[in-house]
């Protein structure tokens, strides 16, 4: 079975320590600024071309396409405090000095009301610059271009509404105007930019005048409104004051109150009556108690107590006589006591009459005082209200007279400091446009270079190849100046010191020195995909090894395509298949092309799968015999990403040269091919960049740095 040889070979392959294949994932992610600058420098001509084209386009736009624009400015000085004939600050106040008020004035200048007046004043609705409906139709429109394709009658043009036209015109006028405040001043600048210098000056001056007139109109309107309001308030206050005075007179006529002093005397009189009434009530209470005690003493026959209570001299003498025992003395005492008691009761009745009289007087005085107090309070309230109304009336009347006098003295808060003169051209700024176009062109050129660099998938230098793969670059083979494959051998013979020949010689040296202990004897040459120059390098390497006086065998391992006949111009019926099947000996099958000092074993078409053929014991035996007969064996194998033949043949190889076409073979393909070789325990010895274009290499900025295509190499190599 053909797989037996492969099974026997696996212990040897397993003993080989395969170096890990490093990919760009192992590369530092930091940006190499020096490499970036070199990339930009390599594209300097593209940057210059892009900058020149952009500069030409910018100059053409600035001189031929862009419409000239002219700006004119009018300066207004704001009056912080207006001189006034009458001090009427609340009606005729000046402009505040804070930033908010100044910015408000800027917005007033750009307000829609003033701009509509400006449009009307200058008849800007008839100006095509601001009224776009008057702009000439150039006949180009998308609908006009598509109407023949879409078919159907064209719609009638839509006539814009007058209000829509006015709004659009006002918006364009606002876009052409600017207002600003000069720093640390009370100066307002009105700037107008149009396509005509005189028009710009006219617009700026007219807007300044309209702004001043608007200030006067606003103040006049405010004064008129103040006069109207004050007149109404004065009339209302006059009626209210008259009503208050009538109420005061009516109250005074209907009330008995003479004055607050009289009310105070009435209150004092009521107090005196109240004091007398209090004394009489106390006296009556005392006399009533005394009479009660006297009556009790008389009933009990207590003569001494009766005398003490009455303190009457006659009754005291009679009491002495009663004590002396006179016969009629007791009767006389009792009569006298009754008389005293009757007299006391009579006095008590008089006191009651006086108290009742005083109580009546007090009630009358209190009622009269209360009534007059209420009238006085109402009168005072009416007088205060009347006084307040009189004060307001007099104040508003004085303000009305002041406002009436001030009506014709309104002054604007701003004056024209300097009128606009014919505008200066501000656009297009040719120098700025040219500079920006130049910068933009340089940026576009740089962007294209960086985009091209980012989209590049091939390798341009051995450093890139080594960095991305982690393998050494053994050779750098420039593109040979041949058009056909048959011209390769004559070129190698005729140009032994050419750049390509020297590059192959360097490749040979690198391969032979890749293992210092045992020089490789069987050298395998492969690539990722067809057309990368691996066959050319295999033939060149074999030719160069033969130049050392060694016996070299070149084997065409790519038996599927079989391109050797195109290089050597000979066909043979014998080849690899005949040798492996023992239909012919190696000596019978080898080909010795004219001028090519190498034995060539051509490929043959086989009915057996190529991978199975190279895995057979017959191929292993063949390689063992070839090792004994030849110093070096170079095997040209198929691309590793296309068929598995190269990986199978790698089992008998001492060195593997992996060919990558310069600036063409994608990095992913190279890395995948290396992984495939490493997967069978056959690590690639090194890589070779093929078909290098020296001119492009110089254009990319590498021409003075590497090998056979360096700038100084011309002195050492034939053309």
Summarize the structure.
This protein is an alpha/beta fold and 719 residues long. 57% of the residues lie in helices and 10% in strands.
What is the fold's blueprint, element by element?
Layout lengths: L2 H12 L18 H10 L1 H22 L3 E10 L20 H11 L2 H11 L19 H9 L11 H15 E5 L5 E8 L2 H58 L5 H41 L2 H8 L2 H12 L4 H78 L7 E5 L5 E4 L2 H26 L6 H8 L3 E6 L9 H7 L4 H14 L9 E6 L6 H13 L5 E5 L7 H5 L7 H5 L5 H4 L9 E3 L8 H5 L2 H13 L2 E5 L8 H5 L5 E7 L5 H13 L6 E7 L1 H6 L20
Parallel strand pairs: 6-12, 7-10, 7-11, 8-9, 8-10, 11-12
Antiparallel strand pairs: 1-3, 1-4, 1-5, 2-3
Reported CATH architecture of the domain at 3-22 and 470-715: 3-Layer(aba) Sandwich
User: What is the end-to-end distance?
Assistant: 53 Å
Q: State the shape.
A: elongated
By DSSP, the count of extended strands is 12
- The main sheet orders its strands as 6-12-11-7-10-8-9
Tell me the quaternary state.
single chain
Percentage of residues assigned to helices: 55-70%
What does this entry look like structurally?
By secondary structure, the chain is α/β, with parallel strands linked by helices. Among the domains are: 3-22 and 470-715, Rossmann fold (3-Layer(aba) Sandwich), CATH 3.40.50.300; 260-406. 57% of the residues lie in helices and 10% in strands. It has helices at 3-14, 33-42, 44-65, 99-109, 112-122, 142-150, 162-176, 197-254, 260-300, 303-310, 313-324, 329-406, 430-455, 462-469, 488-494, 499-512, 534-546, 564-568, 576-580, 586-589, 610-614, 617-629, 645-649, 667-679, 694-699; strands at residues 69-78, 177-181, 187-194, 414-418, 424-427, 473-478, 522-527, 552-556, 599-601, 632-636, 655-661, 686-692. The strands form 2 sheets. A 7-stranded parallel β-sheet has the order 6-12-11-7-10-8-9, sandwiched between helices. Strands 1, 2, 3, 4 and 5 form a 5-stranded antiparallel β-sheet that branches. Strand 11, helix 24 (667-679) and strand 12 (686-692) form a beta-alpha-beta unit. Helix 10 runs antiparallel to helix 11 and helix 16 packs across helix 17. The chain starts with a helix and ends in a 20-residue tail after the last helix. The relative contact order is 0.12. The model is unreliable at 1-28 and 82-93 (pLDDT under 50).
